Amino acid sequence: MTRQELIQQIKEKQSFLCVGLDPDIKKIPQCVIDECKADLAADDEEYDDSLAIILFNQYIIDATAPYCVAYKPNLAFYESLGANGLVAYEETVSYIRENYPNHFIIADAKRGDIGNTSKMYARSFFEGDAQADAVTVAPYMGEDSVSPFLEYEGKWVILLALTSNKGSNDFQKLELSSNHSPLTSHLFEEVLKISQQWGTKDNMMYVVGATQGQMFEDIRKLVPDHFLLVPGVGAQGGSLQEVCKYGMTKDCGLLVNSSRGIIFASNGKDFADVAAQKAKELQEQMAAELAKI
User: Fold this and answer.
1) What's the whole-model pTM score?
2) Hey, how many other C-beta atoms are within 10 angstroms of the C-beta on 24?
3) Catalytic site residue 278?
4) Catalytic residue among 11, 37, 110, 245
5) Are 161 and 208 in contact (CB under 8 A)?
C-alpha cells in the first residue's frame, strides 16, 4: 500500500485506527475455545490453541473492519505457540487480505540484526502468501540492519523511536552532547534525524508512544511529514486528543493503535459486539479530530 492509498483510506473511513491483534490464549473468551473444540470434534480432529486464535481473530476482524484502516498482529503472541502459532499468524494475515484487502497490515515483530539476517527477516514478512505491508524494526544496529526491509517496493519500515513503556526512559531519552554543538539532544532524536537518510516518508514510519504527550510537538519538528504509529491509547492510558493536538499533520500522519482496549473489552459471548463498539467509539473521536484539519 502506498502513502497516498493509505491517506485515501483514512479520508474515506474517517479513521486512523489500527487494531492490534494480540491474542493471548489465556484471555480469549471461553466461548471461542468451546466453539472451536465443538467444530473439531464434529470432524474428529484434535484441538490446538492456535486454532482458537485463528477463530478469535476472525471474529475481531469482522467486527472492527468498518471502523479501522489497519491491523497489527504482534508476532510474540503467535511465536509463543510454536510452529502452529506461526500458521495462525499466516492464516490471520491471509484472512485480512482475502476479505478486507484495503486494510494496512503491520507485522509487529521488532526485528533488527546484521544485514544478511535482516534480509531473511524481510523475506519472511514481505514475500510469500501472507505478506504484510509493514514491519516494525529496531534501529539499534544501524543502517545495514534496516536497509534490507526498504528494498521492497510498496512496503514499509516502522522504526522504533520513542515507545510508550516505562523503560523508554532507560535509553531513548538519554541526552547526547557533541563536540560541534553546545546543544544536547536525546538518543531518540538522533534516531529520527539519521534514519531519514535511509528511507523516505513514502516507505518509513516511526513508533511514538501515546503516553509521550507533548513530546509529539518536538518530534514533528524533526519528522514533519512521516506517518507515526502510535501505541498506548486505551489500556496504557494515552490520550487520543493530546496525540492529535501535537502529532497530526495535514494528511493526518497518524496510525493510532489499540489492542487490549478493543479485543479484550469483554470476555463474554458478546466479545465481538463489544469490540466493535469500542472500535466505533474511537473512530468517531478520530473523525472529530480529522474535521479539525
Assistant:
1) 0.95
2) 16
3) no
4) 110
5) yes
